[in-house]
Amino acid sequence: MSQSDISQVISILETLYKNSDPSAKKQANDWLQDFQKKPEAWMVVDTILRTPLSELQAEAKMFSAQTLRNKIINDLSDLDSSAVNSLKDSLIAHLKDAQSQPQSLIIQLCLSLAGIAVQSEAWADPVAEIIQQLSSDPFQIACLLEFLTVLPEEMMNERIIVSNSLFQDKSTKLLTDQAGNVIQLMVQCLQSTNLDANSHVRVLGCFNSWLKSGELTVDMIRDTPLIDLAFAALDASDNSIFETASDAVCNIIYETRDEAQVTSRGHHYSEQTNITQILLPKLASVAERMRSDKAILEENDEDRMRGYCRIFTEAGESWIYLITRFPEVFEKILAALLDCMKMPNLEIIRMLFNFWGDLSDNVLSNTEHRGHEHIRSSFSAVFESLIDIIIVHQRYPLGFDGFSLPADDSGDWSLQERDEFRDFRHNVGDVLKDCVRVVGEQVALIHPYQIISSKLSSAGSSQSVPWQEIEAPLFSLRSMGAEISPYEDNVMPKIMDIFSNFPTHPKLRYAATLVIGRYTEWTDRHPQYVEFQLKYVFEGFQDKDVAPASALAIKYLCKDCNIHLVPVWSELIGFYYQAFPGDILDDMDILQITEGLAHVINAMPDENTPTALEQLILPMISRLGEKIAAGANITENDKLDIARLVDRMGILFEFVELSKNSPGIAVLDQASVSFCQTLTQITGLFPSHPILSESVGKALRSIFDRHNLAIKDLVPNIAESLVTAFRQTGLGVYLWASRKFIKVYDNATREIWNGNTTIEQIVLTMVQSISETTLQALQGPESAQTHPEIIDEYFKLLVLVLEGFSKQLIRASIFPSIFKFGVSALSVRQVHALDSVEYFWSRLTAQAMRHLSSIKRSQEIVINSSEPHFPTLRSGTNNRQKREENDYPLDIIVRLFASEGYSIVNALFDGFLHTFPPECLKEASNSLVFIAKIIHTGPQLIAIQNLPATSHLQNYIQWINSIVSQIPDSNMPARDRELFVADLSRCFQDENWDKATILFNDFRTIYRRRSMRGLE
């Protein structure tokens, strides 16, 4: 190391922090990241840290401290025990000299010391030594407390790699064995007259860190001033102190969970608990403080709201069994939780939702036990109060008009805020359902009903009532719907009777219409309301803001009340084909209504279904025919009209379900044939139209699912149209539709077309054509990145063919090209596409392994047999017969993996190390091991021409060695790479495949932590 090294680091840091040129900053950042990995960095940064601050920039000191921490995490094993000891002593010296340094630098130095303590086996008693070294003055004690604060956190730092045995040993020696000493030190700091309030804050942080580690129990600290310190700090005006205090209080409460669970099993509540004697009185005081906290009442301080909510949520969740059994003891906690629910910040109060759900579950569960029937009634008042609180929270702001917002979000309420509020209303609706379960449907319904009735009475007496005050309880009714019985006869009729009294406002009609749609099962049991509701919903179509709700309500009315709507079929079909005013309904709305009509047909007497189907389907088929008759030279609007008609027909074929003997089946079958012929025409005329192609794909799915036998004569034509359209356009929808086709018409189908064409031949022809198109279109090096959707659908299709037609696919002439393409496709970065490619390799290798294992088992049976009447088995003749019977082309698979092994292993291993997302790693490691098994056992078990019956594992090891040898020493030391290859080789030789998988995963973990670290 020279002075020039230090000067270069400082110069490049100056470029990073002060140069405005982005390219120069990037170059500086890259250089510094590379420097951090070099061995000489140890000495350079240590020298910088020893240099007085006045002689260099503050950034250099901070960079040096961060670099030390990084290297201790990643490269400490590069140093011998003597060097580690020197480094430890140097860090302690840096801390002692850091009095004038910023706190962020001190934290980095403490983290570095903690990193050595966690990893160094030679450092016998780190905590005792640091306490002895840093106890002479208040500043050093501050450093000591900082070290003790970060030590538990570093113990759990996943970036620090140690063996499991060392981790267990260090965890015991550094934390468990030292917990009592740390408590004693913290108490001494609190009692010392030489330490100021800032030191007490540091004690609080240290206390909180050790609480989080789980090493401190309430019994250990109950007689110390530490609990009082945490609760007293909640009075601090500094929000950072308040946050630490609330965190500590939460951790104290958490430590009583086991005690709470044990206590809850008794028949009577024990007063002799830490919860009762220590925490309940303190939390009661916190609740009073919360109710009068000016930071909340006057300033809407979100940090304070969040802190209080966290404390009482933790209490509720930790003591939920006790609260359920003994609600009178925890009355003040429940009251505080209700007060937390009243806080105006809707994002913060979400943290309470899980508690209310768990509490309702526990209340109902305990109520089922004999002798605990009173528990449910004990909580009725709490949950009734909760209903009223939630209804208030579900109310729109009075300044919001209900639908529109300025495009530039310049109003009082932005588009994002509106969307967040909508999400909140739906999420808090789940809590309302919990309330209904506890208090019962009648009591729950009374609350919104009384609010609505009261507001309507006020409106009737000429008082102005904002629509928001009626809409909120209406919305709550919709939220409760899932828990309301269709047989509820006390409150629901009263609610439905007041619908006609609502003031005229689109948002009220919108909400009321959605309530109708939510309670259609109830309406089915109360058909006297069908006529009014249908009229009310139809009237909503006159308003573009209400129309979407009306379409949804129509769908559910038709679905759940279909038997009651059969008499008004003529009105429904007339409404369906009438010209809707302007742009009142969008395409999705019309599809909702289409589905509804399908449900009504399902309820008709069999003799009426043919006429109804003809009334619904024939006009659409006729219009489709008219549009298509014009040929390819039609307008864009005509193409979109065709897409809309196809979508509606697809919905009908998806949802019309008739009995097997219904005369309507003939109409459906005939229509499905005609519709499929039309779809193939559309595909031929407009194969590249993005919207039309999607519509055709969805419609074919419905036909394949419901009417595949009716259209069996068209199967060859449909298959040809799909592959032709894909060849012409390369659109993924045709791959998706082909996949659906193959899934329906799998190898179980024995139908023969044109006298000699089997489904097997049709599928293989499809795969051949689709593969040729895909491989030709995606030849370029970046093609996988530009067409991930094609990669995704193509490999999903291949997996499906592997499952149904594996032998035929592997024997196909194009399969070697597919195999090679699968290697290059592993470079795709889009997660779903990559997952499909990896799954293909996983299925291919797993399938081959199953067949190899089967052969191996059969050979072992032969070898182990001692029966005299099996003399020919030992000769191998029977093995050959077995192989002939097993028609799976293992020889092709083994040969491909033997010849293309390096390419596939390189692609898998490179992606495994660098680019694969977490969800793809398991498939990758499994495939890497399966490939080794295949090329190891395959040639030994089956005779393959020109492929020696010897293990190819040495080749595999050479491939891996070649790959890892390219890793720079700065990212992974050569000795670690060599050790990995040697260990992997031993696993393969011992056929310890599970351990090989673990080795791959461990190597990746270490490599990623060492090489992917960036400049902090």
Automatic annotation (TrEMBL):
Domain Importin N-terminal: 28-97
Gene Ontology cellular-component annotations: cytoplasm
Classification via Gene3D superfamilies: Leucine-rich Repeat Variant
Keywords: Receptor
A molecular-function term among this protein's GO annotations: small GTPase binding
Coiled-coil residue spans: none
Family matches, as InterPro entries: ARM-like, ARM-type_fold, Exportin-1/Importin-b-like, Importin-beta_N, Importin_beta-like_NTR, TPR_TNPO3_IPO13_2nd, TPR_TNPO3_IPO13_3rd
Protein name (database record): Nuclear import receptor
UniProt organism field: Mycoemilia scoparia
